[in-house]
Amino acid sequence: MKVLAFAASNSRKSINKDLIRYTSTLLPDSDVDIIDISDYEMPIYNSDLEDAHGIPEAASRFLDKIAESDALVISYAEHNGNYTAAYKNLFDWASRKNREVYQGKPIIMLSTSPGASGARSVLSLAVESAHFFAGKVMASLSVPDFFKNFDRDEGVLTNPEMVAQLEDALSPLQQA
Ligand SMILES: Cc1cc2nc3c(=O)[nH]c(=O)nc-3n(C[C@H](O)[C@H](O)[C@H](O)COP(=O)(O)O)c2cc1C
């Protein structure tokens, strides 16, 4: 199975990127392609820009990556209860090319933040809206208190209960 995995964050020191890298180690039987949304940077969406220049090729490259995959694993960073501006912008441009951004793929949705909420607000937003964009959410998990539950030097989730919950969330991909 080809799994496309990414953090919905453009931060170089992103904790959601850490979570994505760790999660990929739990999918040994899959071919996991981890992308960085910073490689799909575009100007802030503006319909005037679209009218004048069309949709940037980065939006098509992102959609092609999704099209080539059998499933997605996404970890959402939360900014003020919402998507990061970087992901929202990528998503908006991509949706102008194909409103069905997730293209019917099964998705495991994750999130983490340094706080106790574990970016639960953005995760709910992503889960609840996925069907508008042809996303099939198979499971979701928010990891709270990232710095208490994750060893960044080792790149591993250290809380056994969280590891079990993550393995459980990934089980639909293992069974597929
Ligand atoms: C502008 C801004 C807004 C934020 N808002 C939230 C928030 O609403 N909820 C939350 O849990 N963390 C919030 N945070 C903290 C982020 O969870 C934290 O920066 C985290 O590292 C972001 O994920 P990333 O490292 O994967 O980019 C915010 C951070 C910034 C810079």
What is the string of helix and strand elements? EHEHHEHEHEHEEH
CA distance, first residue to last residue:
8 Å
**Low-pLDDT sequence parts:** none
- What hetero molecules are in the model? flavin mononucleotide
Output the radius of gyration.
Answer: 16 Å
CATH architecture: 3-Layer(aba) Sandwich
Global mean pLDDT: 98
Strand content: 15-25%
CATH topology: Rossmann fold
Total number of helices: 7
Strand order of the largest sheet: 2-1-3-4-5
**Which structural class matches the secondary elements?**
alpha/beta
Number of strands: 7
Brief summary:
The protein is α/β, with parallel strands linked by helices and 176 residues long. It has seven helices and seven strands; from the N terminus they run βαβααβαβαβαββα.
Describe the structure.
With 176 residues, this protein is an alpha/beta fold. It has a single domain (2-175), classed as Rossmann fold (3-Layer(aba) Sandwich). It has helices at residues 15-25, 47-53, 57-68, 85-97, 120-129, 146-149, 160-175, and strands at residues 2-8, 31-36, 71-76, 106-112, 136-143, 150-151, 156-157. Helix 3 (57-68) crosses helix 4. It is globular, with a radius of gyration of 16 Å. The chain starts with a strand and ends with a helix. Bound molecules: flavin mononucleotide.
